[in-house]
Amino acid sequence: MSENYTALYEQHKKAGASFTDFGGWQMPLKYESELAEHHAVRKAAGLFDLSHMGEVWVSGPDAAAFLDYALVGKLSAIAVGKAKYSLICNADGGIIDDLITYRRPSEEGVDKYLVVPNAGNAEVVASELLARAAGFDVVVDNASAQTSLIAVQGPNAEAILLTLVPAEQHALVTELKYYAAVEVGITFDGGTQDLLLARTGYTGEDGFEIYVPNVDAPGLWEAFLEAGEGHGLIPAGLAARDSLRLEAGMPLYGNELSRHVNAYAAGLGPVVSLAKESDFVGRDALTAIKAAGVGSTLGQKLVGLKGAGRRAARGHYSVLKDGSLIGEVTSGQPSPTLGYPIALAYVDVEHSKPGTMVDVDLRGKAEAFEVVQLPFYKRQK
Q1: Contact indicator for 60, 137 with CB cutoff of 8 Å
Q2: Which residue among 104, 158, 194, 217 has the highest number of C-beta atoms inside a 10 angstrom radius?
Q3: Which helix (H) or strand (E) holds 22?
Q4: What ranges in 293-348 are assigned the alpha helix state H?
Q5: How many CB atoms lie within 10 A of CB 310?
Q6: Interacting residues of 19 by C-beta distance below 8 A, sequence separation 6+
Q7: Which helix (H) or strand (E) segment is 107 a member of?
Q8: Residue 314 in contact with residue 333, Cβ under 8 Å?
Q9: Residues 8, 281: Cα–Cα separation, whole Å
Q10: DSSP of 202-259, one letter per residue?
Q11: Would the pTM count as exceeding 0.90?
């Protein structure tokens, strides 16, 4: 059993959660029904504890230039209040982690960014950023251990959040764009506290993430549950989060992404900014990979698979074409929303075109799947 518990562990226990180890953390897998939690997010709202994620603050006169060097994207181009999805890679182009970076308002003329890595990679990313900071006038502060992260996702997320925000600040919420963040007052535990609110979900639905000090997390969690009673809000665990992100075609580190995978094979080529003037870790390798066509004209490529039958593919199942091995499933399960099996898989590029029929070896029996365009599910705005 892992030794890491979020500040909301007792809330999850009280709600009857089943727990699982994820990235070294004891996290709620589900409460009563993972299927009900999935549908709640698609139709109403779900409340997630994401406190296992990391929070690393980068500040200083060279903050923008440093992040341009440390990550593959052009982080200096982010406007204040906006966010950017990026990758931190090895020198060989392998992916150490995928992460989101928020640019916050400068303090006394000093640039400030919040980098959010994945749970199991938080310490690795913080250490890597510290190592890469040599020669830059920056401060790298890993605040992961002191910070909780609560997310409310689904069509009713905005209405629920507005019940906790002072009326004079409602426009800060309603006008907040996707991949943006703002400080906003949220009322709970008898007072109003200014907290960082982001709109960068991982479920394919509209939603918000709130960064809060650990000591205040239980009060905020309970306030959301109370505010959501008339809006169909229920707590949701990792099982629902995984089925939701799979429908949305979003990669999971450790499944679709790893140090053995490059951005172009993973379909994340647009995240890499080879056009930026500055050098960055992995630039030479990624330039060569792109020039060789790895992930586009040769090698393997991440694709979506739609099942023709009812049996679902699972991670590590073999993908076949005319009986020959052409790839491997990275994630797969029945889609609760769409009603048929879906999967993500790396397959040989020549078999990656949408419409291509392949087979997946489901424990000795070949099952037909079709290569389809991602995402599997896209919400109607």
Answers
A1: yes
A2: 217
A3: strand 18-22
A4: none
A5: 10
A6: 12, 26, 27, 28, 29
A7: strand 95-107
A8: yes
A9: 37
A10: SSSS-EEEEEEEGGGHHHHHHHHHHHTGGGTEEE--HHHHHHHHHHTT---BTTTB-T
A11: yes
